[in-house]
């Protein structure tokens, strides 16, 4: 009888955890014309004076999570997500507007709660070809204030696995 009780408790715990965990789902978004608002910019200045050009955009994301896009030196793009300004990466600026963002999250109480974002960007390949399209994965902070770049994926299956793995251990 004593051996059966711990096994029953373990089984009940596993079952309650698996039932209470919301299934991971995805939402897709494209950033069409008018989806982003320019917040700040600086024209090209003398590099010897430490200046460079930049343009900062804030775009509306899924479930009102802001998307930050910082174009710098007419050649690089940093991206971030969350209520406070944050950008990560050194991506190519020629991002195709038809490439969707995939928000990964779970629905709880009838509301989708994102915890990660997958998007295709140009990643510098170190060679003469310049930037090549790649999928990158961002995790969102628990409080929704920011994000961190998790890594690059070779395909959608790997990107989703990377994104879904951060559901419980987000950045920040």
Explain what the structure shows.
It is a single chain. The chain is of the alpha+beta class. The chain has one domain (24-164). It is built from 2 helices and 10 strands, in the order αββββββββββα. Residues 1-20 have low confidence and may be disordered.
Strand content: 35-45%
Count of distinct structural domains:
1
- How do the helices and strands follow one another from N- to C-terminus? HEEEEEEEEEEH
Shape: globular
Residue-averaged pLDDT, rounded? 82
The number of helical segments is 2
- What class do helices, strands and sheet pairing give? alpha+beta
How would you write the strand order of the largest sheet? Answer: 1-7-8-9-10
Report helical residue fraction.
10-25%
Tally of extended strands?
A: 10
How far apart the termini lie comes to 45 Å
Rg to the nearest angstrom?
20 Å
Q: Regions with pLDDT < 50 over 5+ consecutive residues?
A: 1-20
Tell me about the largest β-sheet: 5 strands, antiparallel
Explain the layout of strands and helices.
Elements lengths: L3 H17 L3 E6 L6 E7 L11 E6 L7 E6 L3 E6 L6 E4 L9 E8 L2 E14 L6 E10 L6 E7 L2 H9 L8
